[in-house]
Each structure stands twice: as C-alpha cells, then as structure tokens.
Design brief:
282 residues, TIM Barrel, eight-stranded parallel beta barrel, globular
Length: 282
C-alpha cells in the first residue's frame, strides 16, 4: 500500500504492534537463531513449530524420535511430515535442521542398526526440505580413540553418497577436538560431511570454543549449538561475547540453535525467551 494512502491511525496501530513484539526474528542473510525441539520438550512433535514461532525464534531443529513402531522412527509417516510442512508454512517458521536421535540408542560408532536410521533420516530430511542432519556421538557411543575415530569416518564415508544425492549435510556432533573432527571429514572424503559445533560440549571437554570456531572457519561448520547448561547463557563459564564475535568474524551466517535447559523453578517459554533475548543483544 502506498504511504500516502496510510492513515495516521493505521501507522500508529502498526507501530504499536511492532513495539508489542518482545523479540523480533532476524532479517536478511546474517546469523539466524533457532531452537532444538527437544529443549522445547516437544521432541518429534509438530507442536514445536508454533511454539518456536511464538517465542520469536528464526527456526526449529527437528528430532526424529526414538519410539520405533514397525521398524520406523516416529516421523517416518507422510501424515506427520505433511503436518510439519503445513505448520512451518502457516507460521513462517523454517525447519532449520534435523537430528537422528536414534543414534543415542544405536550408535554409529559400531551398531549395525545405526546406518539404517541415518539412511532413513536422510530421506526424511529431504522430505522436510532441510539440508542439515545432526549425527550425535555421546554416552557409550562417544568417540574415544583414534581407531574409533577412523571407524566412524569409514561408516560416514559409506553414507555420504546418499546424503550428497539428497542434498543433505551430515553434521558431526561429539566431544572430540576440532582437529579430530576434521580428520573424520578428510577420511570421509565428502564436502557433505561437516562439523556440528556445540560450544557447551566442546567447553566441557576442555577445548577453547572460540579458538576452535576460528580455526574451523565457516566452510567446515554446518550449524552450531549454543548453550552453557545448567546456567543461563551469559551467567556461566562461557564467554558468549567472544563466541559470537568469532562466529561473526568467520562469516558464518547459517543457524545457531539454542540447546538450553529449563530450570526447575521456571518454564520452557520463560527460560527460552531469556536466553534468546541475551543472545540477540550480542
């Protein structure tokens, strides 16, 4: 509508609506702040989409779930996929990535079932129009030795062609160093294998997250998790001013998803808003 045709009342109403919005979503091609559905306590649940939208996030990372029925993950259903896509379009809330959380049960390090879940997750990621799939390596499936690191790289190399064909990036999230992750990437021999960098995991493992982010650079990082659990962001041991400066300086402009806990005396909405507001101010 041309500006000349807008009444003063309409302008005032528009300004009031903007002022009433507690947190605005990021615009343009800069860093975008999303959220994990499991930290919204809505893992593998389409209701995470409208909740993320209402809280002001730029995207939501979707987990595929672990309650296997008929040898399928919970999201492996045309009806559920359609529901995600409908809600995403309705709320203008991108599905910014996925996570094959069945790897917490059947780890890619050595469990034969893991490859099936990853292949299925690649297919489902394509159906959801997402291009980053997180592969977690934690607990008894954590990578602990050079031999295990090489075994993981070999298995990822076998899966990489399917990811390349689907246009999906396999993101490695673990507790090993940036250098060891790049060793996996090099051995996997695919540009579709990258690091899913988690500042909390790396800090807790004794690594300097700021130095690692700068060393990896934007082309070896597919996405980022931001957290300093159990503390609120900015009140724990991680210097997020320097973390965000490093992310900016390397030119990373993808998604950084909050993976922050909810305190027992608070609510998901309140704590997510608090952490999101803090990171947006930086």
């Amino acid at each position: 509508m041309p500006m000349a045709n807008l009444s003063r009342r309409a302008l005032l109403c528009s300004a009031a609506a903007v002022a009433a919005t507690p947190i605005l979503r990021a615009a343009g091609s800069g860093l975008k702040i999303g959220v994990t559905d499991w930290n919204l306590r809505l893992g593998a649940n389409p209701d995470a989409v409208p909740l993320a939208a209402s809280l002001g996030f730029d995207g939501v990372q979707v987990s595929f779930g672990r309650k296997i029925v008929d040898n399928r993950m919970p999201l492996d259903s045309p009806e559920v996929i359609d529901r995600y896509l409908q809600l995403s379009a309705h709320h203008r809330m991108p599905l910014d990535g996925t996570c094959v959380d069945m790897l917490h049960t059947n780890g890619l390090k050595s469990d034969p079932l893991a490859e099936k879940w990853v292949v299925d997750a690649i297919r489902l990621s394509g159906m959801l129009h997402t291009d980053v799939l997180l592969l977690p390596f934690f607990g008894k499936w954590a990578i602990q030795t050079p031999a295990e690191r090489d075994a993981v790289a070999d298995r990822v190399r076998e899966l990489a062609p399917a990811a390349e064909k689907a246009g999906v990036i396999l993101g490695l999230e673990n507790t090993i160093s940036a250098e060891d992750n790049v060793r996996i990437m090099d051995r996997a021999r695919s540009t579709n294998v990258r690091v899913y960098y988690d500042v909390g995991n790396s800090t807790n493992a004794g690594f300097d997250a700021v130095k690692e982010i700068r060393w990896l650079g934007k082309d070896r990082i597919c996405q980022i998790h931001l957290k300093d659990n159990p503390a609120y962001m900015g009140e724990g041991k991680i210097n997020f001013v320097e973390v965000m400066r490093a992310i900016r300086d390397i030119g990373f402009n993808g998604y950084a998803n909050l993976e922050t806990d909810t305190h027992k005396d608070s609510t998901v909405a309140a704590d997510m808003r608090r952490n999101l507001e803090f990171i947006r101010k930086l």
